[in-house]
Specification:
Order of helices and strands: EHEHHHEHEHHEH
CATH superfamily: P-loop containing nucleotide triphosphate hydrolases
CATH topology: Rossmann fold
Helix content: 40-55%
Shape: globular
CATH class: Alpha Beta
Number of helices: 8
Structural class: alpha/beta
Strand order of the largest sheet: 2-3-1-4-5
């Protein structure tokens, strides 16, 4: 990893991208950006408000536009869980550094996510967490340069694994 490269975190809602991203930014002396927050600031409303006013495809388009407009050297980037639906957006992010998939088991996500219905998740109406997990898992693996198995690991251990993995990238 070069002094100006970024790390791009991908994974399901509830995987810990934002929490781990802030910790990584401190550990590796990088700026931190959460693309969900970037979208909300650009739009002036929450992700759920965007979904309430349109649909999940509209939110995904807004997300792609925000990703393509971003300039993120020397950052830890916590992406929205649906960033992987945009090939153009992911290719744009990949130019800044390796993509790291935080692979969290479905059972853990179920325990972590208590507001699935109103969290602002870009998903088809009525789509269950399990269906969303199954749909996205292949996309996360497709774009990942590094896969981190987060099962039963404390954040500090995951941060250490990521830091060790990116030394070789």
């Amino acid at each position: 990893m070069t002094a100006t490269s970024s790390l791009i975190l991908i994974g399901m809602p509830g995987a810990g991208k934002s929490t781990l991203g802030i910790m990584l930014a401190k550990e590796l002396a990088r700026d931190f950006i959460d693309t969900d927050v970037l979208i909300q600031v650009r739009e002036g409303r929450s992700l759920q408000q965007i979904l309430d006013g349109a649909d999940y495809l509209h939110l995904r388009q807004i997300e792609e536009d925000a990703l393509l407009a971003s300039h993120l050297p020397n950052h830890i980037v916590a992406t929205g869980g649906s960033a992987v639906y945009s090939d153009r957006g992911m290719q744009h992010l990949q130019q800044y550094g390796p993509v790291i998939f935080l692979d969290v088991p479905l059972a853990d996500l179920r325990r972590r996510i208590h507001n699935y219905e109103n969290r602002g998740i870009a998903r088809r109406p009525g789509q269950s967490l399990e269906d969303l997990f199954n749909e996205r898992h292949a996309l996360y693996r497709h774009y990942a340069d590094i896969v981190v198995d987060c099962r039963d690991k404390k954040p500090e251990v995951i941060i250490g694994e990521i830091a060790a993995a990116v030394v070789d990238v």
